[in-house]
Write a structure and sequence with these properties.
heterodimer; A: Rossmann fold; seven-stranded mixed β-sheet; five-stranded mixed β-sheet; 12 helices; B: alpha/beta; Rossmann fold; five-stranded parallel β-sheet; disordered N terminus; binds thiamine diphosphate; binds magnesium ion
């Protein structure tokens, strides 16, 4: 066990699997960096967020591929290589760039298995950094997992900590389906205990981060540490909560959420995305239709507003749900 | 030194006022960026800033041919394009600091500065996001039949994006007055253009799409001005799109904070000596006797003072109120 950042944990998973499985390749912009540069340093980058560091020196151009700025070709080539027997990891850098290559994700990779009558699979992992918190503006800060969660045929991972990120990445790399792996930028430096060796975390199994009696809180990615803060604060007043981190939004562990709501009767869902057609509204909808009898109060959703992510520090801070808003929501669901 | 004539010599390619304005704009861009480079270290400027220092002659050489009625679309490295197209220095500085008085109320930031009243349709944080927009603006220009044009600025890296290929082909098909300017500064992020641009020849690609294209020294204002002038005249006359590939360098990293491990140690130092557009401009205009040092020195001082005021005002200006988070999402609700 070692203390490790989420960045390093994902990097460790990539290292483990590339050593174990020669079919794994990595491709994307500056995953190594320095190609065509004047310094001669062929690992001048290791990924803009440093997640693919150390791979090129071990595996070279054949398995660690720096690409031009061509997202459709990056994701498409990864999907094609997957059909042809490789296990590619495509890095999209910022999740917002999904906008450039959506066809290759949702019309191509996600649908092959079904359209081909179940006779082939497309085991591609698409990695993308998401989220607000660094004042990168409307085109570099979005949490777009709801769009992908809505697409049948592709799995969606939204880790909140280093331990989960490593186990989920190893699972993604071995999974026979296309997986979109969203890494929250603000969580990259978040440290946690991570075992050295090989382990996987199955998809569709939520983590119970806190156990309590009064309220069920479901939170995703960066909202998990924020919810922990709010919950730990309220615990001092004797208000206790279940905190559930679904870890994957597709498949979604409905059972764990519904069971918890059976016990608490109250639900707060926390999601960094805007509210409409969000994972928050999806979970609220599932609980309203399958767990209605258990509810003692209206479900409270804590989300970003229905607006793009603003640039200015003060505006972005107001935009992103934080511990305070979560605390208020928990108090509200208890009052109702 | 011979006594210089009172007005520019007859063979000057631009009128005296234009030469002075071009120099002032290039100098403004340079000092704007040099000052940001310093101010960013204080941590007061939010986000992610990509500086244009070194490339000034491209923005200015191009925009000297444009009026407010012509359009440009820009990139993540957009400050130079914005200033050259007439965006307000103070308004931009406010925006970069995320202030309410910014050109976009602090909602956009460095990568999204825009002023549609100046024909500046926005910097853009999506590489390759701009060229399709420029084709659309060029359709509007064509239909207005007023000889206006639309210019898409982009980098060498953007030349590899599918949206750019689509835009270039469509511009040829529709024969619209769209001009593509690919500033080849040798790098896209941490990757060299010689690696990522397969043919190593962006102008040649443009010709492959069926439009005229030229390559020029992007550090030579006059080279850019003349080459773009020819292409722009072609587009204004209804000849359809064209492409310019100015070869240029950037003085700083991809973004502020980039350690630039992909660059040879003395590369920037050498290029600052041999490819500096301001030095080249001064040498040319003073050498030809078009302008004197005494015409230009006061501009340097004025520009520095203006930038200083802009920074000081921006530092102390208030942000937009939180209620602004949910305004401007739609025109009507
Ligand atoms: C669609 C998309 N892909 C990737 C990026 C990340 N990115 C920002 S700038 C850049 C390099 C652009 O290179 P170039 O077009 O040469 O412009 P320069 O930075 O040299 O001005 C990249 C890859 C992005 N912003 N948008
Ligand atoms: Mg470039």
């Amino acid at each position: 066990m070692a203390q490790m950042t989420m960045r390093d944990a994902i990097n460790a998973a990539l290292h483990l699997e590339m050593a174990r499985d020669p079919r794994v390749i990595v491709l994307g912009e500056d995953v190594s960096g320095g190609a065509g540069g004047t310094s001669g340093n062929r690992e001048a980058s290791g990924g803009i967020f440093g997640v693919t560091k150390g791979l090129w020196p071990l595996y070279g151009d054949e398995r660690v591929i720096d690409t031009p700025i061509s997202e459709s070709a990056i994701v498409g080539a990864a999907a094609g290589a997957a059909l042809a027997g490789l296990r590619p990891v495509a890095e999209l850098m910022f999740a917002d760039f999904v906008g450039v290559c959506m066809d290759q994700i949702f019309n191509q990779a996600a649908k092959f298995r079904y359209m081909f009558g179940g006779k082939s699979s497309c085991p591609v992992v698409i990695r993308a950094a998401m989220g607000a918190g660094m004042n990168m503006g409307a085109q570099h800060s979005q949490t777009i997992y709801p769009f992908i969660t809505a697409v049948p045929g592709i799995k969606v991972v939204v880790p909140s900590n280093a331990y989960d990120a490593k186990g989920l990445m190893l699972q993604a790399l071995r999974d026979d389906d296309p997986v979109m792996f969203f890494e929250h930028k603000a969580l990259y430096p978040r440290k946690g205990e991570v075992p050295d060796g090989d382990y996987t975390i199955p998809f569709g199994e939520a983590a119970l981060v806190r156990e309590g009696e009064h309220v069920t809180v479901v939170a995703l990615a960066r909202m998990v540490p924020f919810a922990e803060k709010a919950i730990d604060l309220l615990a001092k007043e004797g208000i206790t909560c279940d905190l559930i981190d679904p870890r994957t939004t597709s498949p979604l562990d409905e059972e764990t959420i519904l069971e918890s709501v059976e016990n608490t009767g109250r639900l707060v869902v926390v999601d960094e995305s805007p509210p409409r057609c969000s994972v928050a509204s999806d979970i609220a909808g599932i609980v309203a239709s399958k767990g209605f009898h258990a509810l003692k109060a209206p479900i409270v959703q804590v989300t970003a507003p229905h607006a793009p992510v603003p640039f200015a520090r003060e505006l972005e801070r107001a935009y992103v749900p934080g511990p305070q808003k979560i605390e208020t929501a928990i108090r509200q669901v208890l009052k109702d | 030194m011979a006594t210089a004539p009172a007005s520019s010599a007859p063979h000057a390619p631009l009128a005296r006022e234009q030469l002075l304005r071009a120099y002032r704009t290039m100098k403004t861009i340079r000092e704007f960026e040099e000052r940001l480079h310093v101010e960013i270290q204080t941590g007061e400027i939010p986000g992610f800033t990509h500086l244009y220092a070194g490339q000034e002659a491209v923005a200015v050489g191009v925009c000297e041919h444009l009026s407010d009625r012509d359009y440009i679309v820009s990139t993540h490295r957009g400050h130079g394009h914005c200033l050259a197209k007439g965006c307000d220095v103070q308004g931009m500085m406010y925006e970069i600091y995320g202030r309410a008085a910014g050109l976009c109320k602090g909602k956009g930031g460095s990568m999204h500065i825009a002023d549609v009243t100046k024909g500046m349709l926005g910097a853009n944080a999506i590489v390759g996001g701009g060229p399709p927009l420029a084709v659309g603006a060029a359709i509007a220009c064509r239909n207005r039949k007023d000889g206006t044009v639309s210019v898409a600025f982009g980098g060498d890296g953007s030349a590899n994006q599918g949206t750019v290929f689509e835009a270039m082909n469509m511009a040829v098909v529709l024969k619209v007055p769209a001009l593509f300017v690919f500033e080849n500064n040798g790098y896209s992020e941490h990757t060299g253009a010689d690696y990522a641009v397969g043919s190593k020849d962006i102008a040649g690609r443009a010709r492959g799409f069926g439009m005229p294209a030229e390559k020029c020294d992007g550090s030579d204002f006059f080279a850019v001005y003349e080459a773009f002038g020819r292409l722009c005249a072609h587009a204004r006359a209804g000849g359809g799109p064209a492409t310019l590939e100015p070869v240029i360098t950037r003085y700083y990293g991809h973004f502020e904070g980039d350690p630039q491990l992909y660059r040879a140690k003395d590369e920037v130092k050498r290029l600052r000596e041999t490819m500096d557009c301001l030095k080249k401009f001064r040498a040319r205009v003073e050498g030809e006797g078009w302008l004197k040092a005494s015409d230009l020195d006061p501009i340097d001082e004025q520009v520095l003072a203006q930038i200083d005021v802009a920074v000081k005002s921006a530092r102390s200006a208030p942000p937009a109120p939180e209620s602004e988070v949910t305004t401007d999402v739609y025109a009507t609700y």
